[in-house]
Write a structure and sequence with these properties.
This protein is α+β, with helices and mostly antiparallel strands. It folds into 4 domains: 8-94, Uridine Diphospho-n-acetylenolpyruvylglucosamine Reductase, domain 2; 97-217, Uridine Diphospho-n-acetylenolpyruvylglucosamine Reductase, domain 3 (2-Layer Sandwich); 221-329, 2-Layer Sandwich (Alpha-Beta Plaits); 336-426, Alpha-Beta Plaits, CATH 3.30.70.2740. The chain has 16 helices and 18 strands. The chain has helices at residues 13-16, 26-31, 52-65, 117-126, 143-149, 156-159, 194-198, 232-243, 257-266, 287-303, 315-326, 328-333, 351-365, 393-410, 429-432, 435-448; strands spanning 22-23, 45-47, 69-72, 89-92, 99-103, 108-111, 129-130, 166-172, 178-182, 207-214, 216-217, 221-229, 251-256, 277-285, 307-313, 338-345, 369-374, 379-386. The strands form 4 sheets. The chain has a 7-stranded antiparallel β-sheet, with helices on both faces. A hairpin with a 5-residue loop joins strand 8 and strand 9. Helix 8 packs antiparallel against helix 10 (287-303) and helix 13 (351-365) packs antiparallel against helix 14. The longest helix has 18 residues, at 393-410. It starts with 12 loop residues before the first helix and ends in a 13-residue tail after the last helix. Residues 1-5 have low confidence and may be disordered.
């Protein structure tokens, strides 16, 4: 595949794209150089499209002059997915932020990629409907970014991830052609499942300019239950019992002692006692069912020696309890250490092994590892807490990641459940995928982007 080796095209963009919002201002380039990970690279040009036609023009120009193009949502990714690794053009999708329609009759929302996830949830709730995917950064991240990474969140256990709510996409391909996959129908088996192909493709197959998303009726009641445990193995046993009780929680979260203590320091008023493990469970549905399920879960937590149980009914009480969970990451950041957030996944039967591995790596390499996340689907965030002022810790962290990913794969797990591969996990991609699987990815990439201009420099080269 050809690679752009010069920036002669930069002298020509004004003639080819006179009506688009373009910038070569250094401050603008810098602000579009990275995400929440540690890598940055300035593009040569930032284009802020307002319509699908704008995106089409930009990609026609990029194809003509063989210019790398990286689509960017809100910039809240954690793996360098929107870093323009080979420079070129950043397509900043933030101005394409209209909620075009919320239809309760069809059970769909039609949105542009720059819509903030939390804003869509609020718009749906106003008409008593529900968009379930809830990444931790839902107040900041965009639907386009969620689609690029197939974002998840705590409610995945009951409701699934982003791909389960994408019915159709409008996509501009690398050569500037526009396709529409799927649509408003909740069932559609016409041809290949191309909608699913683009969801999770990390911007390497096309640029999404509009999405048709599935909505469901908003559950009338919700409740959260939290509990502490003197031993983490008791918390893990409680998780297993809850999932075998006949109750399907909307969310089932777990945290270790290091995470709990960091949250206590950051949120001194939070209702957390000294504990080695912590569980948060949410259930939702009709009021009678929620009350019954809450009692079932309370009894299970008590049976497994859970203490300091807190139960909240309704949005306000539940959000007060979720505030603590959503601040786990901020509490860790407030410690002044560099936090390497690895969103690994293992089969649920291997959760205990994963937490043991976390402790083992912490002792072996000499830095804390905070572990918390979605116990219900085996997606645990292992956060390596690195003190860059201490000689050798940064190098040891790389070796720790080697061990972590090797063991996770040995347990039948995956490198990433929510964040994607991006730049951060490129090194381990060949170990997670067979040669034939990598070749299949490469063939698909070449078929849709033969010049390799869409988000190049990532795990497909």
């Amino acid at each position: 595949m050809k690679k752009n080796t010069n920036i002669d095209w930069l002298d020509k963009y004004a003639n080819y794209l006179p009506r688009l919002i373009c910038s070569t201002n250094l401050n603008v380039l810098k602000s579009h150089s990275g995400d929440k990970w540690f890598a940055e690279k300035n593009p040569q040009l930032v284009i802020t499209p307002r319509t699908t036609t704008d995106v089409q023009k930009a990609l026609l120009f990029a194809s003509k002059f063989n210019v790398p193009v990286t689509a960017r949502g809100a910039g809240f990714g954690y793996v360098g997915g929107c870093v323009p690794a080979r420079g070129g053009i950043v397509l900043a999708m933030s101005r394409m932020n209209r909620i075009i329609e919320v239809s309760t009759q069809d059970g769909v929302a039609i949105v542009e990629p720059g819509v903030i996830t939390g804003d869509l949830q609020k718009a749906a709730q106003k008409v008593n409907w529900f968009y379930p995917p809830d990444p931790a950064s839902l107040k900041d991240c965009s639907i386009g970014g969620n689609i690029a990474t197939n974002a998840g969140g705590p409610r995945c256990l009951k409701y699934g991830v982003t791909k389960h709510y994408v019915l159709g996409l409008q996509v501009v391909l690398a050569d500037g052609s526009v396709i529409q996959t799927g649509g408003r129908c909740h069932k559609n088996k016409t041809g290949f499942g191309l909608t699913e192909l683009f969801v999770g493709s990390e911007g390497m197959l096309g640029v999404v300019t509009q999405a048709t998303l599935r909505l469901i009726p908003h559950p009338p009641e919700r409740a959260t239950i939290t509990a502490g445990f003197q031993r983490l193995d008791l918390a893990l046993a409680a998780v297993d019992s809850i999932l075998n009780s006949g109750v399907l929680p909307a969310a089932l979260e777990i945290a270790d002692a290091f995470t709990i203590n960091a949250a206590k320091s950051f949120l001194p008023k939070a209702a957390i006692t000294n504990a080695d493990g912590f569980i948060l469970v949410e259930v939702d549905g009709d009021r009678a069912s929620v009350r019954s399920q809450t009692n079932t879960i309370k009894n299970i937590l008590l049976k497994h020696r859970g203490f300091n149980l807190n139960v909240g009914f309704g949005d306000k009480a539940c959000e007060d309890q979720w505030m603590m969970r959503r601040q786990f990451s901020e509490g860790l950041k407030a410690m002044g250490l560099t936090k390497l957030n690895e969103d690994v996944v293992v089969p649920r039967s291997k959760l205990a092994d994963l937490f043991k591995l976390s402790k083992k790596l912490s002792l072996k390499y000499g830095f804390p590892i905070a572990s918390f996340g979605h116990a219900g689907d085996g997606n645990i965030h292992l956060n390596l807490m690195i003190d860059r002022s201490k000689p050798g810790q940064e190098k040891r962290s790389v070796r720790a990641l080697d061990d972590l990913f090797k063991e996770v794969l040995h347990l039948g797990g995956a490198l990433t459940g929510e964040h994607g591969i991006g730049l951060a996990k490129m090194k381990w991609w060949p170990k997670a995928a067979s040669r034939n699987l990598i070749q299949t990815h490469t063939k698909i990439k070449h078929a849709l982007d033969p010049l390799n201009i869409l988000n190049p420099g990532k795990f497909l080269g």
